[in-house]
Amino acid sequence: MFEPVASADPRLRADPLADDTIARVLGTWDDGTPAMSRWDAIALVNRELAGWQTNGMLDGWKASLGTPAPIAAALEDYVARARRLPDWVDAGKVGCAEAVFVDMSMLSCTLLFCASLPECYVPADLASVLHTAGQLEQHTDYRVRSTAAMIFPVMLRGGLLDPAGGGVAQVLKVRLIHATIRHLIVRGNPGEALEHGAVIAPLLAEGRGLHQTLFARGWDVNANGLPVNQEELAYTLLTFHYVFLRGLRRLGLGLSKEEEGAYLHAWNVVGHLLGIEQELLVETMGEAEALFARLQQDGRALAAARYAPSTRKVGATLYARSTDPRPALAHALMRAMQDEIPLRALKAFPVLLTRRLCGKDTGRDLGLDGRVSLFSRAVFALGMGVTRTVDTLVRLVCPGFSISRLVTRIFGYRLTTRFLMDQTRPLKLPEALLHQVDGAVRGWDLDPQAPGWMNAIEQRLRPATPAPEPTVIKEAA
């Protein structure tokens, strides 16, 4: 096992446990096991990960028969160590966070699309990796579904603490995927790349797949730090809890201080399982705001030094002359949401809502500050203003009343059914997760806080929930 040199810079620190695991899988085997190509080894690992469906299955987990001994040993050691919850976990706070997620239901999905994911693209290095992978510019729904495939198992009831939940299992999969990305980009154990101050030159790709593309892309560790490093992991975690909570505040639906603290705590447990260092986890919204601002400032400074200013043409939606990948990523996400809005007059809604939730600076970073018709801006501004005013006044006599909640639930329902429940899309959700998400979505059929007539409006305006494919139970041989 390679012992990396400790660095004070979180951009030069990654995840030794997961990185060493992948290095054992893809490195030289010296126990007499026949050699296997890196692509076959990765495919084999992915097949093993697919079997991690519930937290309870990780207890004493063993690799499948026929798995090469070095791979089996590496994965079994990883599971035994990585599945441990931190000593500081508070079951009460985790339960409170789960209740918040369930209560927000479809609104959570809207915030994912219009706040969390857009903010993910601001750091230059993270956007660069996503752009190379093609996960959003070419296959937007792939990125959305893979992100939701972690969020739902984590935040649904029992996701982190119940053996029948799937949150821990899913997070451990994601952690190994991160390590695989790092290993492929730096072409070895990230600790060794740091030791040698590596500049990895681009290669001709051995194929057109994601893994081959990452392996061939090239990387400058001195200039860029490690791919998917501790700073980027901490920033991404902030988009899942801090940006979510900030979005609720900006919609006039903010939670109590205790609920916000509980939500941060639950995601800190996730951060621990993802291999994020303790000092990069935050406990309060004040700490989260400060860390988020600092990391965004660093990301913007790096982008300013790396990318030429965008070249814009009046009426254009893509800035073809720009080398900055972030506008292209954001445009793909916005277009995917706009495709789900039937009324032309409301097509600008995702862009305008993202601007409101993320702010002017992020809108400018992502190229979302371009021209929007005066009519669309007026309708949106008037709608938001009237909504906040009416919600504030009516809640004095009817606490559960919220037009903002109604609109964002309808929009979130449409996005959820299109992007998560539709199994004809490129990335299919695992069957167990699909049925879990389906059960949650059907449980969100009514908003318990809203009056009956508002629920009737919501049911009339949202699309029908597609039925999941029936589960086929195979008899044991």
UniProtKB/TrEMBL annotation:
Residue span(s) of domain ER-bound oxygenase mpaB/mpaB'/Rubber oxygenase catalytic: 142-388
One Pfam family it belongs to: MPAB_Lcp_cat
Source organism superkingdom: Bacteria
Name of the protein in its database record: Oxygenase MpaB family protein
Source organism: Massilia suwonensis
